[in-house]
Amino acid sequence: MQGKVGVEPSGDAFNAISLEPITGRPRNPMINAGAIATAAQVWHHDPVGAETTTLGFFSALAGRPLQVEEEVYRSERQTGHRNRAISHLLRNVSVIESEPEGSLDLYFRQCSIGINCRDLAVMAATLACQGRNPLTNERPLDSPTTARMLAVMGSCGMYDYAGQWLYDVGIPAKSGVGGGVLAAVPGRLGIGVYSPRLDRFGNSVRGIAACRRLSENLQLHLFDRNPLGQSAVRSIYRGTERRSRCWRSPADGAWLQPRRARIAILHRPGSARLRRHGAAAGQVGGKHHRFQRDGARSGPSDRTAAFLRGTAATSGTATAGRRSAAAALPRRPSGAAGRSPRDLRRPKPRHRCGRCRWNRCPRNIGRRLRNCSDSGATAPERW
Fold first, then answer.
1. DSSP H stretches of helix in 157-294
2. Containing H/E element for 105?
3. Which is nearest to 132 in space by CA: 52, 211, 187, 65?
4. What are phi and psi of 149, to 5 degrees?
5. Helical pair 300-308 and 278-285, crossing angle rounded to 10 deg
6. pLDDT higher than threshold 80 for residue 363
7. 3-state DSSP call for residue 204?
8. Most confident range, picked from 202-211, 256-265, 356-365
9. What residue ranges do the domains of the chain occupy?
10. Per-residue pLDDT at 59 exceeds 50
């Protein structure tokens, strides 16, 4: 696709004939020339099923079936003379490899898909979730493709206003001459705004104003982040306030239901492996607390895992930005009666000293350290 369409900002209007002087390809896929070339590649791959593929893709982004507005399509086809000229220029430089009428018709029908403001927001949220729809859990885009799309949206999505937009708002976005603005903050949220009054660049006037205010009030600017001054935990909920979308067996659900009040749900921005949640667990449990599970000391990863399962016993204060919540989780009884069906399948530790409660050190796999009252030796020995 990059051999047919570039990724550089054009600095021209959305309907300008902006082609690279040497290759003849459009500057980027966010302007009309680039969108026509992109639609042509879809049509060239499968002329019969191109419209079905396009509708299915946008429906997966929005989380519901979408349809083409036939009246809008007829208007686009009757008045799209400039777009027709662009398609013939692209055919002249072999960006479009066949007669342009079929691919141009697909472009007109793509521009006539009917959506509402909520659909815009869901599409933006899908891009913010690395291509996975947060409502349907369907994944129309993979993570690498989504990252590239957001990058092009950040530099080219607002036409020749893209530089000022990135300077003021700092969010990857795409506007349309219909009055819609789609903005996605990776790992956080998606924004959909609709207001039909346009400025001289072809962007929604109130849409830009709304996104600018949201960026300022919620600190969404991608280039104005201070991770050292922010909390590792954005918000905390109790198990009675939120329900997971994960499927559980009847036995697990029956065990979990009476314990929902003891579960704390941590909302952390982005994605991280479990062993990196030590700071979050420290926030919830207090700086000097150590989580106890079944009477044994545990490391940062185990503390976090135990807390997220609702099996830890601690008390403290958790701070998330301006919000504060107290986490006081009672200790679950030991033995099979207090263990979940999943815990019953977990193997027991291989060996533990009865006095020093020693277990295998994760930093010295295959070794053991004799450092208890049973022996005066302190040198490590082979397992």
1. 162-168, 205-218, 250-256, 278-285
2. helix 100-111
3. 187
4. -65, -45
5. 60
6. no
7. strand
8. 202-211
9. 1-115, 117-225, 235-344, 349-383
10. yes
The dihedral through the CA atoms of 289, 293, 295, 296 has a sign that is negative
Mean pLDDT (the chain) is: 76
Per the structure block, which two tokens stand in for 209?
């104003």
**221-232 tens-digit pLDDT:** 988 876 655 666
Domain 117-225 grouped into CATH 3.40.710.10: yes
Superfamily of domain 1-115: DD-peptidase/beta-lactamase superfamily (3.40.710.10)
Residue 127 token pair: 């891009």
Q: What is the pLDDT of residues 113-169, one digit of tens each?
A: 999 999 999 999 999 999 999 999 899 999 999 999 999 999 999 988 999 999 999
Q: CATH topology of 1-115 equal to that of 117-225?
A: yes
Q: Which residue has the higher pLDDT, 179 or 289?
A: 179
Three-state secondary structure call for residue 33: helix
CB atoms within 10 A of CB 372: 14
Q: Are strands 173-175 and 189-194 parallel, antiparallel or unpaired?
A: unpaired
Helix (H) or strand (E) segment spanning residue 323: strand 323-329
Amino acid at 1: M
**How many residues are given for the chain?**
383
Cα of 227 vs its chain's centroid, Å: 18
Provide the b/e sequence for 32-51 (b: ≥16 CB within 10 Å).
Answer: bbbbbbbbbbbbeeeeeebb
Q: What are phi and psi of 151, to 5 degrees?
A: -65, -45
CB-hemisphere CA count at 13 Å for 180? 18
Closest CA to 185 of 272, 269, 271: 269
- Binned at pLDDT 50, 70 and 90, residue 361 comes out as very low
**N-term to C-term CA, the chain:** 56
∠ CA 217-190-320, rounded to 5°: 50
pTM above 0.85, yes or no: no
How far apart are alpha carbons 257 and 264 in whole angstroms? Answer: 14
Is the model more confident about 107 or about 312? Answer: 107
